Structure formats: C-alpha cells, structure tokens
Amino acid sequence: xxxxxxxxxxxxxxxxxxxxxxxxxxxxxxxxxxxxxxxxxxxxxxxxxxxxxxxxxxxxxxxxxxxxxxxxxxxxxxxxxxxxxxxxxxxxxxxxxxxxxxxxxxxxxxxxxxxxxxxxxxxxxxxxxxxxxxxxxxxxxxxxxxxxxxxxxxxxxxxxxxxxxxxxxxxxxxxxxxxxxxxxxxxxxxxxxxxxxxxxxxxxxxxxxxxxxxxxxxxxxxxxxxxxxxxxxxxxxxxxxxxxxxxxxxx
Amino acid sequence: xxxxxxxxxxxxxxxxxxxxxxxxxxxxxxxxxxxxxxxxxxxxxxxxxxxxxxxxxxxxxxxxxxxxxxxxxxxxxxxxxxxxxxxxxxxxxxxxxxxxxxxxxxxxxxxxxxxxxxxxxxxxxxxxxxxxxxxxxxxxxxxxxxxxxxxxxxxxxxxxxxxxxxxxxxxxxxxxxxxxxxxxxxxxxxxxxxxxx
Lengths: 251, 197
Description:
The complex is a heterodimer of chains A (about 250) and B (about 200). By secondary structure, chain A is α/β, with parallel strands linked by helices. Chain A has helices at about 40-50, 60-65, 70-80, 90-100, 115-125, 155-165, 190-195, 210-220, 230-235, and strands at about 15-20, 25-30, 35-40, 55-60, 85, 105-110, 130-135, 145, 170-175, 200-205, 225-230, 235, 240. Chain A has a single domain (about 15-240), classed as Aldolase class I (TIM Barrel). In chain A, α5 (about 115-125) links the parallel β6 (about 105-110) and β7. In chain A, about 50% of the residues are buried. Chain B has one domain (about 5-195): Class I glutamine amidotransferase (GATase) domain (Rossmann fold). Chain B has helices at about 15-20, 50-60, 60-70, 80-85, 185-195; strands at about 5, 30, 45, 75-80, 90, 100-110, 115-125, 135-140, 145, 150-160, 160-170, 170-175. The chains are: A alpha/beta (about 250), B alpha/beta (about 200).
C-alpha cells in the first residue's frame, strides 16, 4: 500500500511568519526597527502561488489599536494554505471571530492566562491554541521571557514551557528576540531546549533562520516545525524584497 | 451544476471551506438551524474546528435532520476534521454522543503517548488506485483520532501509530485532514468524490 516515492516523510514543516503593523506587512529586527514589506494580502497571494505550506500572521500593533479583522479576513480569503493568527487577542470572542473568518489556530502570547486558555481549549481543542514565548538571554545567560511574565511570575523558559503544557496548548512557538530579523542562523541555546520536550510537546523554532539547512537542522534537533520571516521575504545582501518559498522539499 | 451545502455549526473555519468550495461550484449555501428548508444538496459538507462536545451541542435539531435527510437520500456527505469525528459514536474528548454514522469511537493521541498531529502528512489510500498516481499529502491538525477499521479508506500515520485519515461508508465520507488547506491535493480529492457515481 505504501507509495514508492516520498521526498521527506513527514514533510518538513516550514511556516511563513508574516508580521503586521496596522494594515501593512513589516519586518522587524530584534523586535524593534521595522521595515515596510508591502501589502499583506498581496504577499499572501504570492506565497499561495508559491505553494507555501503554512502561515502565521502576527500583529505587532493589535495589542494597542485592536485587531484589524478586515485585513485578516482578506488574507484568509486569498490564502490557500493553513493560517494561524496572533496579536491583541484578549477574550474568547476574539478567538471565535478569528477562527470563524478562516484561521485554523490562534496564537497567544501576552494573554497566556488560565482564564483565557482553559475556555478556548474547551471550545476549540488544544490543537487550535498555540502559545508564543518571546525569549532572550538574561544577564546570567539563562533563557527567559521577554517583556511578559506569565502567571505565577514565571519568567524562565523551561518553566514557561511546562506551564503552557499544563494550560493545554497544542504547540509552542519559541521566538528568539535576539535573532529576530537578523538572518543570523539558529540560536543554539534555544535549539537545545528541544531535547527536554521533543517527546511531549510540539515546539516551533522562530528567529534568525537564514536558509533551508537551518530548517532541516532545527527539525533534526527535535523541533516539529520552523517559522521564518526574513529568509522567505528577502533576497541577497541588499535585502531586496522577493517572496520565496522552497519548492519540492517541503509539505 | 453541483449544489453544495455547508453545515454551519458556528464553530470553526467555515469561511475557508466556503471559499474552497467555490472552486467546484458557484452554488454553495450555508445551512443553519434557521434557514434549512428541507432542501437536498448534491454534496453536504460538515466542517469543524473545535472540541467534541462543543460540536455535538452545535448540532441543533434542524441540522441533525438535514444531515440524516442527506444520508437517507444517499446524497454525498463529507465531514471534515471535527465534522468527521461527529459522524462517529463518541469521543474520549467529551461525554456527549455523536451521530454514530460510523460505528466507531474517537481516541486521544495523548493517551497513547503521542504528540498532537500537526502539519502535512503523506497518506495511503486503501484502494491503491483511488488517487495514488503520485503520493498524496494533506494538512492535519488534531489531537483525537479514529483508529483503523473497516471504514478506513485513507490511512494516516502519527509517530508510530496508524490511524484513519479518511473514513467511508457508502456516500458518507469523513476526512480527518483539511482538504480546504491542502493545495491541489485537497482539491483533487474533493473533485474525485464529487465525480463519483
């Protein structure tokens, strides 16, 4: 019954990370400088044509100005690949609306509280709820959460992962603040974290991915997927904007 | 022209499924508790992203009648993801009973020490000739699964465990993956089902 030819089984999971500020797609560097990339709907249409296999839309501004539902709806309408959304989600009704307009999963970062995650998991199942932990090395060199502490004052990355597991989220994106937008390669400290959790949790690596070899390395190290932004939107040292997506090798 | 009905459970990504279905026919209607007037569609789709009990509770009386009217009239019915699981007897995820079209239960990967199954996966068709000209892969996102059984027409794998990626009983189909998010692979499969006599 098994087919003779498969490229990689299971296919490598490379997720397009697209940042929004208001109604624009942007690229950030170390979570600060932001560069305009273009119209997000047009970018998603291009990535659809390139058979992108999965996308995560993350809004940098929704926390302050609210979720731009009309843009999200337009993005979902043109996307021919599965989408998740994060940014500014504060209530179950926000989650209801995001999922109803065409997103398979929601990503929670600032509001990773039991009060929000528990009813969301009850309604949509853990597979629809994703945690995003933005991490950075602290002055002792330990990986800790950037800006937001979780409930119970949790700040250490390992403790945060365990806490998210207890909350019942389906997967966790570990986003390296220091590598964001830098095309600097994988953060080895974060890569090693997967040793402890690879058998119990789906972890997604995000930050610094510069080429497909990085994607394969992170996956080989135990990450179930890799999220990338700059690698998929820039070309060359001059960082010309050119949406690209590796063909054939991935799902 | 194929008339497609989409069961609106007010739970899940019905907008994506609607947009996907418009590729097959311009005649796509959402079916809700309030608007179903005993009309029969050529294809009825039960989409769903959500937990089992939330899904069962969403199957209000008219939607229940609508689904069984289609099954009894031997129209094609496709349950997608949670929609497939609702066509089973019950689930370890909840305490409520499903539609029991497929006489099988839904189990949890966690109970078998497997992680959630998320991402693209190759599948095998039990009938080798069905679509197997090239390897087929689809997008999965689920923690609950239906074991392999006599209903299995597509076989999936998560870690070391085989499970039913697709169920079939006559004209009733269940797809654990999301064809609406599976590029050309999903489109080819739904087209194949629509074309079946």
